[in-house]
Amino acid sequence: MTRSILIALVSLAVSTPALADVTVKSVGGGKGMGITGSMSTVTYIKGNKMRTDSVTGDTTRTMIFDVDNQRLYSFDSKKKEADSWNMQAFAADVSKSIDTSGIKASVKPNGQTKVIAGKTANGYDVAIEVPATMGGQSGMKMTVMMSGPTWVVKGAPGTAEYLAFYKGAVEKGWIFSDPRGAKGAPGQAKAMAEMYRQLIASGGIPYETEFTMKMGGDGPMAAAMAKMGGMTVTSTVESVDTGAVAADLFAPPAGYKIKEQK
Predict the structure, then answer these.
(1) HSE-up (13 A, CA, CB side) for residue 222
(2) What mean pLDDT is predicted for residues 153-174?
(3) With 241 labelled, which of 97, 104, 198, 214 sits at a CA distance of 20 to 30 A?
(4) What is the percent of the chain where pLDDT is above 90?
(5) Where in the chain are the domains?
(6) Could you give the C-alpha distances from 159 to 22, 64, 123, 129, in angstroms and in order?
(7) Which CATH code for domain 2-261?
(8) CA 187, CA 194: separation in Å to the nearest integer?
(9) What distance in Å separates the CA atoms of residue 170 and residue 191, rounded to the nearest whole number?
(10) Is the pLDDT of residue 135 over 70?
(11) In what order do the strands lie in the sheet with 119-134?
(12) CA dihedral 2, 88, 258, 15 (to 10 degrees)
């Protein structure tokens, strides 16, 4: 789930033919809870389709979001096969499996600014709390907390197209993470989707984020998790380009075996 969140962060509608394509290049990383790592990501947006290519080590992991056709494809550079999900059905299943009443997500302006990639960004404080259970429905109750600043650039080239894609996806109830991770942590996936909805309202592109994830709760397991400390997840946009993107990027490569997932 952590890798799914990182991909979602670095990759963070009804479009018209007049709108341009968008390519966003980002770098990110995670550190803490015994995990360290870095990732570079290229995100392509063309109308109601988005592709993310995330590189860790010698492996490229790709996710393709086709909002109009309610399809998500996931594959990596090591195998010639792609997983495919019907996202309308998947989102409905996830919604039925969790109680959203305990999920909290807020995005609030903090009045600060900074320059990122030559653009002036406005600061927002993000806070997410998600109830969780370890060991099944009757297991130990815990809370997953994620908070930190995000820096949003408004009015930059590609902003209208970026916001149009996410607006259309959010309106259809999409979850912006790997479905396998969302199945294991549906509450976190729904909270991240709500965060995206609120970020869209800011009217810009998130150019930088720095979130800290922590676990809280009662009992010995919760205390042990708290002692491990938090995990910091970061992402920074290096460039945004509005040149044309090839249409064939938004489908699995020819010859790949498509595996339907549920």
Answers:
(1) 15
(2) 87
(3) 198
(4) 43
(5) 2-261
(6) 9, 20, 17, 28
(7) 2.50.20.10
(8) 11
(9) 12
(10) no
(11) 104-116, 119-134, 140-154, 204-217, 231-241, 22-32, 35-46, 49-56, 59-66, 71-76, 81-86, 257-261
(12) -90
Q: What's the number of CA atoms in the CB half-sphere (13 Å) around residue 175?
A: 28
Q: How many CB atoms lie within 10 A of CB 38?
A: 14
What is the Cα–Cα distance from 184 to 244, expressed in whole angstroms?
37
132-138: average pLDDT? 60
The structure's pTM equals 0.80
- Burial letters for 90-127: b for 16+ Cβ neighbours within 10 Å, e otherwise? bbeebeeebeeeebebebeeeeeeeebbebebbbbebe
Gap between the Cα atoms of 3 and 110, Å rounded: 27
Residues in contact with 95: Cβ distance below 8 Å, sequence separation at least 6, in sequence order: 173, 190
Residue located via tokens 């807020």 = 106
Over residues 56-111, the pLDDT tens digits come to 889 999 999 999 999 999 999 999 999 999 988 877 776 665 666 678 888 999 99
As a whole number of angstroms, the distance between CA 118 and CA 32 comes to 30
